[in-house]
Each structure stands twice: as structure tokens, then as C-alpha cells.
């Protein structure tokens, strides 16, 4: 029995295989679709959060609020968003002759929604038997709260998508997005506006970051 040698330079053949694998990974990426859908969901959440927030202010000026609009809007909205992203991803990828590894991302997103719900329920149960804290929470607790919030779990799930796509650009974008989420930017808005309006600038900024990311990745794809 003999083995026929494959003609050609082995290093050139290895390079061609590497280039082919790179092109396949590139054709599997529809990153702008995921970011665009998430941006739309983020902007659509603003009226739900605004009108779904209950604010009770005492004569002393101290106010208590509950953001039930977040609870009623985000879980179903994100489930629909991840389903839509998975469908469009696979449809576009298959039109290019490849398949898309997007299902683990959608499953991770759905699992993180359960984490958000569990954290929300735990806080509500705790506050039902204990008075709300009168002093500001430690900074670490605030960061954790923002991380398990809907806009935080969006970033965590995007890290999974970056890993699946081996997409360094998406990884860097997601780290930047999480920095914006975990260190809110408000430009001093809360000092002059209502309790509802305090959350508006950060929500708009989160949506704009996702929208600009979608535009950037779409432009990079076209180029």
C-alpha cells in the first residue's frame, strides 16, 4: 500500500486552509444584526420604565420608587430579541453558504434573564421584611446591581457571542459597553430633574452605544 503525496508547498496549503477558515468565520458573523436588535429593545424600554415607575415622596423630600416597568418589559422583550437574533443570524449565514453558531448565545441570554428575575425577586422579598437602606449602598453592590440589570446582562451575553465568533472587535466593543453600563454617565442630570428623568440619560446612552456599534460593524462588513 502506498500513499500519494499531495502536490504543492505544505506551508502554502496550510496558509490557504487558514485563510479559508478565516473567511468562513467572517461569513458566519452578522454582528450588526444583534447590536441593532438590542438597541431597538433598549430604546423601546424607555416609555415602559418611565410610566411603569412608581414614586412616593414624603414631605421631607425623601422619595421611594419601584421600577415595575423594568420587570414587566425586559424579560419578554429580551426573549423575543434573542429569538429574532438567532433566526436572522442563521438565515443570513445560510444565504452565504455557511451555518451560524448563534444558538449558545441565545441560550445564554435566556439563562441570564432568569438571573435577573431571581435577583429582582430576592430584593423584593428582602425589602418586604426589612426597611430599605437609608444610606447609600457600597459601590461594589451598585456595580453588581448594574451587572445583573437587563442592560448589564446584554453585555455579558455579548461576551459569549464574541467568543463564539472569535471576534476581537466585538470583544473590545462589549468591554467598552460594559464600562459605560457599570459606570453610569448622567452629566449631572439628576440634580435638576424628576426621579423618572434621572434614569433617562443612561438609558439613552446605552441605546446609542449599541446603535453606533451596529452601524460600525455593518460598515466594516460592507468594506
TrEMBL record:
The chain crosses the membrane at residues 30-51, 71-90, 102-127, 139-162, 169-191, 203-220. Keywords: Membrane, Transmembrane, Transmembrane helix. This is Uncharacterized protein.
